[in-house]
Amino acid sequence: MLPNDRDTEMCVLGTLIRYNEHYHKVSDMLSPTAFFDVALSNVYRCAAAILDNGGITDINSIVAKGRSLRIDVDRALLAQIIVHCSEPTLLQDVSRLHAMDVQRRLWQTFTAAANRVIEPVADVDAEVESVGKAIADIQSLTTDDGIATFADSFAELSAMVDSNRDGRHEYIETGFAIFDRFYLLRPQTLSIIAAFTSVGKSALA
C-alpha cells in the first residue's frame, strides 16, 4: 500500500470547507493527487473549484459543483468530513499530505523505471533522460523531507540501466527461477514479498 492517511485527508478537507480563509494559504501545496482516497480527492476538486472562484463552501455548494463537473459527491461523506475539522493542525496536516503525495509519485516513477530496465532497453540514453526529468519534476515540489536527493536517485537509476545495457545484472541469486530470471532481488534495495499462505515465502526468506 502506498503511503496515505485517510484521517489526515478528512481533517484537511473539513478545515478548508469550514474555514475558507485558510485555503489560499495552503493551496499551493495541495492538488487532487494529495488525496489518496478517490472520493476525498473528488471532494477537494469541487471545493477548490468553488474557492478558486471566490465562492463559499458548504455541503450544498459542493454537491452542486460536483453536478456541474460531473463528479459524484456523497452528502453523507461530506457530513463526516466536516466533523473531522482540525484548524490548529492544518499546516502540519497539509505538509504531511504533501510529503506522502511526493513519496507516492517517486515510488510510481521508480516502479515504472524498474519495470522498463529489467531487460536491456532500446534507447538507454532516452530512458535515463526521461526518468531523470520525471524525478526532477517531482522533487522540485519538496525540500528536505527525508526523501533521497535527486542526485542519488539519478545515479542509482543510471547505474542500473548501464548494468543492464552491458549485460551485467547485479542481483541476489535465490535458487527460485522466477526471481533469478528477472533479477528481482537487487543488493541494497528493499524487497517486499507477499503471497498466499503455504507457497514458500518463508523458504525464500
Comma- or semicolon-separated keywords:
205 residues; mainly alpha; 10 helices; 59% helix
What does this structure look like?
The chain has 205 residues and is mostly helical. It contains 10 helices and no strands. α1 crosses α6 (90-117). The longest helix is centred in the middle third of the chain and has 28 residues, at 90-117. The protein is elongated, with a radius of gyration of 22 Å. Mean pLDDT is 78; it is low at 143-147.
Task: Produce the secondary structure layout.
Elements: H1 6-18, H2 23-26, H3 38-52, H4 59-69, H5 75-83, H6 90-117, H7 124-139, H8 150-165, H9 177-181, H10 201-204
Distance between the termini: 21 Å
- Low-confidence sequence ranges: 143-147
SSE order, one letter for each helix or strand: HHHHHHHHHH
- The backbone outline, from C-alpha atoms, is elongated
Number of beta-strand segments: 0
Structural class: mainly alpha
Strand content: under 5%
Mean pLDDT: 78
Percent of residues in helices comes to 55-70%
Number of helices: 10
Determine Rg (CA atoms, Å): 22 Å
The major beta sheet can be summarized as: none
Short description:
The protein has 205 residues and is mostly helical.
